Structure formats: structure tokens, C-alpha cells
Amino acid sequence: MAATKKAKREYSPEQTRERLLLSGLKLFGRYGYKGVTTRALAEDAKVNQASIPYHFGGKEGLYRAVAEMVADDMTVVKSVFYRHAPLIFRKIGGRKALLRKVVQKSVRRIVRRFLGFRDNAADRPAFIVREYMEPGAGFDILYDRVIKNVHMALTAMVAAAFGLSEESDEAKLRAHALMGQVIAFGVARPVVLRRMGWESYTEENVDAIAGAVVEMVLGALGLKEREGNR
Description:
By secondary structure, the protein is mainly alpha-helical. The protein is built from twelve helices and no strands. Helix content is 72%, strand content 0%. The chain is elongated and about 60 Å long.
């Protein structure tokens, strides 16, 4: 990967670290850990190459720090959804109306958090997907801190809807299918943008996506309201 030289300027230590993290997020997501050099990282961030070992100990340290940053960015989902989700779904059990409301709120939050609407929002899903394709130390961090817990929460959701054991293969596979509906909007972002005629994922667009995903999840779980009950 050819690195393009860009003019450098002076930044504070905090600004330098932040710029390297954002460049790492972008480049590791696009090219993978092996496809990125420290020179490319420094030039993209417009900082001195020596800043990488100074702040992170080297390329691997920056890569791990990026994974930690992405995991930290999911803490809103963690706090409002999956930390206590399995217990919540167990308590709800077969109460379909209550389960429907919790599913609607939970899935919407996951979609909004995964897709986001910041300037570099596309880089986060890209980094996660790259780690799915080429699992490394970054994947281990994401799995242990985020993915495993979200998957367990979705499995509990499926188990509650169908009266299954949370440890059953059926519940886990159905949960994975639900998770894939969200991930698809990150992986296939260019397709979605072109088909919808959107320039980017704005807050309004992400809300529309969330609404579609919620309806699909409710249908898959057998929780959609009948027309006469709306």
C-alpha cells in the first residue's frame, strides 16, 4: 500500500495519540494489520513516525489500542442492553407483549450504536468486519468485551421467544442470524447507499434502518403484533 506524504504540524500529545488512533481505525479496517505500515499510519495521521512507539510501543500496540477504543465505544450498548439482558429475558419468559417492547428498544439501540452517525462512523464497522475476516488480537479484544456478550444477550432473547434453552444450538444459531442482520448494514454499506440513493448514513437514515431491522427481528421471533391489536 503506497503511502501519500502529507504535511505535518505540531500537535499536543493528546491530539497526536487521538490522530493515530483514528488513522489506525481507518487503515487497519481497510487493509488489515499486515497490510498497514507504521509509515502509512504516521503519514495518514500527519504526525512523526516516532510517535507510534512513543505512545503505543509500536504498530501492534496501536492496533490493540484501536480495538480497545472500538470496544469502549460500545459501552452504551453494554450498559443499556447486554450486561443484564440474559436475566431480563429469563424473567420476561413467555410474556409476549413485554418481550416485544424490550426487543424493540434493545435492537434499535444496537443498530444505532453499531452504525452511528459521526464523520468516521463507517470506519468502526469496517474495523469490526475486518477482524471477522482476519481474526487477530483485535478480534480477541472485541469478542471478549463486546461480541460474546451481545451474542449471549441475543441468544437469551431467542430462548425467551421460543422457550428454548440458552445453551441449545438452535438458540445460538438463530441469535447469530439476528446478529447478521445488523452486521450486513455495515458490510454492505455501499450497496445500501446506492440502492437507497443516500450519500451517507445520517441520523434519519440510521433510524430508518433500525426500524426495518426491528420489524425483521420481531417477525423472526414471532412477536409482531396482529393488525387488530395495533
